[in-house]
From TrEMBL:
Family annotation (InterPro entries): AAA+_ATPase, ABC_transporter-like_ATP-bd, ABC_transpr_MalK/UgpC-like, Mo/tungstate-bd_C_term_dom, NA-bd_OB-fold, P-loop_NTPase, Transp-assoc_OB_typ2
Protein known as: ATP-binding cassette domain-containing protein
Keywords: ATP-binding, Nucleotide-binding, Plasmid, Transport
GO MF entries: ATP binding
Family affiliation: Belongs to the ABC transporter superfamily.
Domain of life of the native organism: Bacteria
PANTHER family for the chain: ABC TRANSPORTER ATP-BINDING PROTEIN, MALTODEXTRIN IMPORT ATP-BINDING PROTEIN MSMX
SMART domains: AAA
Protein's UniProt keywords contain Nucleotide-binding: yes
PROSITE patterns membership: ABC_TRANSPORTER_2
Residue ranges occupied by any ABC transporter domain in the UniProt entry: 4-241
Length: 362
């Protein structure tokens, strides 16, 4: 188990003595605590796999350094890093039993039989595999095969971290939830640092203690899921985190206030930030719909998406801006209905040139 430090770590696949660098991963500083769960999140091509491959040792970074528990492992071979990896598709021996699959990494290390048996019993207990140890691996469902892939990594007692590269992609949607919870349980039971690569924000948010959001090879924000939701560093994070994403509204200046006419709400912001460069963001969960009344901003319901208990309402403001509201499903409210909007000022987020600003900073 290890604390992992990325120190000005970056990579350009075209790194050359001269010419401009085309960074797949722009230099980044991050510190990951021993025993926590992390998710690398971002759209395709943002550099997640590049970062993961540098951590596993499959790729040597073109700049910066990587430390495991203070030890510089930047140029250490993968086999000497004690990393367990779980890939998109389960990597197991289908001709072997579950027990034989778990035993294999230990046999390769020359452990004696008694030590191997004790270790397998311990890991099988954590993974709920005790009853299945003598089953042929090929008969197991995809999610159990992934659990065994994980078990083959965890069975060693020297694992510094588990790297999970989109391991839930092949899992049935209804099994994803339980496997994700299982991964968290394993993290709590073993205290092993886990790093998950995903482009699915709900997967990242429900798995990780901290989510690292990336875009175009650049770190956007890193922090606990609730921080990313409540205080996104920029409009991209606001949009990428949350479902539906953050609503962004155009603003106008009214004296020392920046106001979003669509929602009839604004913030005090003395003159330095011009309205053309600013937007006000509001989470769909933070806008309330009320019966139409003259003292509130009006809007019209365009579409209702019923989610069961909740619904997502698509609305059009009197300024012709489209936005979404997520709240308890209200059966009487439908397309074409007129409503009024209300927003608590403390739920308004202000962005200047795409970066979040607070009134004190502007
Ligand atoms: N071996 C390589 N040689 C050159 N460029 C590469 C190589 N591997 C990746 N890249 C480029 O580096 C950038 C980051 O790729 P990377 O695979 O790290 O992103 P990702 O976020 O993991 O994407 P995905 O979710 O699609 O796997 C992309 O522009 C990609 O085209």
């Amino acid at each position: 188990m290890a604390e992992i430090i990325l120190s000005h770590l970056g990579h350009a696949y075209n790194a050359a003595p001269c010419g401009p660098l085309d960074y797949a991963l722009k230099p980044v500083d991050l510190a990951w605590e021993d025993g926590k769960t992390y998710a690398l999140l971002g759209p395709s091509g943002c550099g997640k796999t590049t970062m993961l491959n540098i951590i596993s040792g499959l790729l040597t970074p073109s700049e910066g350094r990587l430390f495991f528990d203070g030890r510089d492992v930047t140029r250490t071979r993968t086999v000497d890093r004690n990393i367990a990896q779980v890939f998109q598709f389960p990597v197991i021996y289908t001709t072997k039993t579950v027990r034989q699959n778990l035993a294999f990494p230990l046999e390769c290390r020359g452990w004696d039989r008694a030590r191997i048996s004790a270790r397998i019993a311990h890991i099988a207990d954590i993974l709920d595999l005790t009853e299945r140890l003598d089953e042929p691996a090929k008969r197991l469902s995809a999610d159990l095969k992934q659990i065994i892939s994980l078990g083959r990594g965890l069975v060693r007692d020297d694992v510094a971290a588990v790297l999970l590269d989109e391991p839930l992609t092949v899992i049935d949607p209804q099994m994803k939830f339980s496997l994700r919870r299982k991964l968290r349980d394993i993290n709590k039971a073993t205290g092993i640092t886990m790093i998950l690569v995903t482009h699915d924000q709900s997967e990242a948010m429900s798995f990780a203690d901290e989510v690292v959001v990336m875009k175009d090879g650049e770190l956007q924000q890193s922090g606990p899921p609730e921080d990313l939701f409540a205080r996104p560093a920029n409009a991209f994070v606001g949009y990428f985190i949350g479902s539906p994403p953050l609503n962004l509204f155009a603003v106008e200046r009214e004296g020392d206030r920046l106001v979003a006419p669509s929602i009839g709400a604004g913030l005090t912001m003395p003159g330095t930030l011009s309205a053309e460069h600013a937007q006000i963001g509001v989470r769909p969960e933070h806008i309330r719909l009320e019966p139409a009344r003259p003292d509130r901003a009006p809007a019209q319901v365009e579409k209702v998406e019923n989610l069961g208990l909740d619904a997502v309402y698509t609305l059009r403001s009197h300024r012709q801006e489209t936005f979404k509201v997520k709240m308890r499903h209200r059966p009487g409210l439908g397309a074409g209905d007129a409503v009024s909007l209300s927003v608590d000022p403390s739920d308004l987020l202000l962005f200047g040139d795409g970066q979040r600003v607070t009134p004190a900073e502007a």
